[in-house]
Design a protein that fits this description.
12 helices; 323 residues; 2 domains; Rossmann fold
Length: 323
Amino acid sequence: MSSKPKVLVTREVFDDILEYLSQSFEVTSNQSDVPMDSETFAQKLSDKEGAIITLSDRIDAALLTRCPNLKVVCNIAVGYNNIDLEACTRARVMVTNTPGVLDDTTADFTWALILATARRLTEAEAYLRAGLWDGWKLKQFLGLDVHHATLGIFGLGRIGQAVAKRAVGFEMKVLYHDVRQPPPEIEQICHAHFVSKEELLSQADIVTLHVPYSPATHHLISKKELQQMKPTAILINASRGGVVEDAALIEALHTKTIAGAGLDVFENEPKFNPKFLDLKNVVLAPHIASSSRATRYKMARLAAENLMAALTRGNPPNWLNPF
C-alpha cells in the first residue's frame, strides 16, 4: 500500500506534470479527458487529499461533505466561480488558482476577437468557403476601423492592462471603467482614462470585458447597456459567461442595435444559445483565450506547484482563502 497522499487530476494534463506529481503523491488522473458527471466526480474525490480541477468541475458544500480527507483544490484557471470559496473555508480546504501566467495570451486572443469582429473576418471566410465570391466590390464586407478608434475596457486588472497596452500600436483612445481604480502610474502606462459605465458604453467603438464573474457582475451587459452603445460599436467578451446576458445580446445583434460581437465565453457553457449560430455578425470561439501551448502548460504546472506546496508545506503561493 502506498503511503503517499492521494490526489486527483480531473482532466488531461501534460505527461511531465503527472510525473512531477507522482514523485510525491499517489495520482489518479483522467488522461482520457472525458468530463466526469457530478456523482463520478464525488466518488473519485471521496478519498483524496488534493485535486487539480478545471472550470467544468463544481466544488460546493454538498461535495465537500463527501470528501472528509480533502485539503486543497487547485483550479487550472484564474477565475474560480466554479468553487464555493466560503464552503471550502468552512471545511478548511485550501483553494488556489493560476494568475499571471495567462495574461498576455488572453490579451492576444482578445485582440484576435477585436480584429476578426471589426473586419467581419469569419463572415467573409464563410462567404468565400461557400463559393459565393465572384469578384472585388467596393462596398463588400465593410467593417470597422480599429486604428484611431475608441477602446472601452471594463476591468483594468492584469488582463485589461495587457489589452490596453496593445492598443497603443493602433493609436487608440482608451477608456476604462472598474469598481477599483488602479494607481495613477498604471493609468499612465496603459494610456487609459477612467470614465463612468455610461460614458464608456456611449463613447467606445469597441467594448471589451475583463472582469471576474460574480453576483456583482452577473449580466453586467444586458439590454439596457447594449442600447447605450453606438450602433456601429462591437462587444468583445473573453472574460466569463454570465457577464453578458446572451439572450439580450442575440436580440441586439439581430436588430443591429450594435454592429457585432466577438465571444469566447457563454452562459451555461459548453451549452450555449443556438440562436448565436443564426447570426452572421458574431465571432464565436469555444473558451480558448488562454489556449497557447506554452500558456496552458504554465497553468497546469502552476496548479501542480500549488498542490505540492499545499500538501507539503500548507502554504501554497496562490492561496485564495487563507485561514
